[in-house]
Write a structure and sequence with these properties.
338 residues; 38% helix; alpha/beta; NADP_OxRdtase_dom; TIM Barrel; Aldo/keto reductase; oxidoreductase; NAD(P)_OxRdtase_dom_sf
């Protein structure tokens, strides 16, 4: 396992994060404590150091299990949790990104995690009812209090993140160091706005559901499983077509479909860290093999073509009008990345 900096901070984080939504059986499909111990041990032995959880995962059981398993080794890991989601549906202030819910949620998370601080606190989802100025000030306060060391935001529009970090820059507050978003061969829409924004602001990208709920694992294309998700939703034909192209590429490379899918998420952008969530240690070991897999250019081209999306306006319009805007000499100008 190699390490990168989290955003523009000096925090070293491993190439792949361990997702713990599967820790605990409270939702009826997760892993028991002893299997969680095996998963965490296998991840740590591979060099992984980022544990990603949330207050709502398995109704708090995930945080409790993580806290129990880390024990005296807690400081060896980058412990990340989230707030926003309600833990009490009868209380209108028990959800959202406002200061009251942040303080309440974080204190409860620290107790479940058995620690006095988290290394990364994520805003779990954009709350359009709370001014982003309030959220950034409240987050800065918990950082200054030492209860969180870094902050990030999950599942939010690019313009919200850009606005938040601009406010932080001008007011001397803690900026977001990373975003957490869905990204896979069948879910590439973050390439339109969120990934360019992350590049511009130097943000790390934690990619959740990199296997698209099992669609890219071979589960529906190699076995006898009906093409329906765990929620009973039929897998779209386009996604199955992408998965079959993935299977063919994987067979040619002598690798598993899941390994190639995970390797793809990392191939195009060094800022991207796939979040690997599993139900047993054997599955984790198989998935981690993706970190040693380098995809040939022709394999990448086939996968990109099979899963291509329309970038839409303004990206496509900008590309189509290059000569009109810059003239013939524009083709001889070497551009720069943010």
């Amino acid at each position: 396992m190699r390490y990168r900096m989290l955003g523009r901070t000096g925090l070293r984080v491993s190439e792949a994060f361990l997702g713990t939504m599967t820790f605990g059986e409270d939702w009826g499909w997760g892993a028991p404590v002893e299997e969680c111990r095996k998963i965490l041990t296998a991840y740590a032995e591979a060099g992984g150091n980022v544990i990603d959880t949330a207050n709502r995962y398995t109704e708090g059981a995930s945080e409790r299990i993580v806290g129990e398993l880390l024990g005296a080794d807690r400081d060896h890991f980058v412990v990340a949790t989230k707030y926003t989601l309600t833990m009490d549906g009868t209380d209108p202030n028990a959800s959202g990104n406002h200061r009251k819910n942040l303080v309440r949620s974080l204190e409860a998370s620290l107790e479940r995690l058995r620690t006095d601080h988290v290394d990364v606190l994520w805003v779990h989802i954009w709350d359009p009812h709370t001014p982003i100025e309030e959220t950034m000030r409240a987050l800065d306060d918990v950082v200054r209090a030492g209860k969180a060391l870094y902050v990030g935001i999950s599942d939010a529009p690019a313009w919200v993140v850009a606005q938040a970090n601009t406010i932080a820059a001008f007011r001397g507050r803690t900026p977001f160091a990373a975003i957490q978003v869905p990204y896979s061969l069948v879910k590439r829409d973050i390439e339109r706005e969120l990934l360019p924004m992350a590049d511009a602001f130097g943000l790390s990208v934690a990619a959740w559901s990199p296997l698209a709920g099992g669609v890219l694992s071979g589960r529906f294309t190699r076995g006898a499983a009906a093409p329906r998700t765990s929620r009973g939703v039929e897998v779209p034909a386009h996604e199955l077509a992408v998965a079959r192209t993935l299977d063919a590429v994987a067979d040619e490379l002598g690798a598993g479909s899941a390994q190639v899918a995970l390797a793809w998420t990392r191939a195009g952008n060094p800022r991207i860290h796939p979040i690997i969530g599993v139900r047993d240690a054997a599955q984790l070991t198989d998935n981690l093999a993706a970190l040693r897999l380098s995809l040939p250019e022709d394999a990448l081209a086939r996968l990109n073509e099979a899963s291509a999306i329309d970038l839409g306006f303004p990206s496509e319009f900008s590309a189509a009008t290059t000569d009109f805007v810059y003239g013939p000499v524009g083709r001889r100008v070497d551009g720069r990345r943010p």
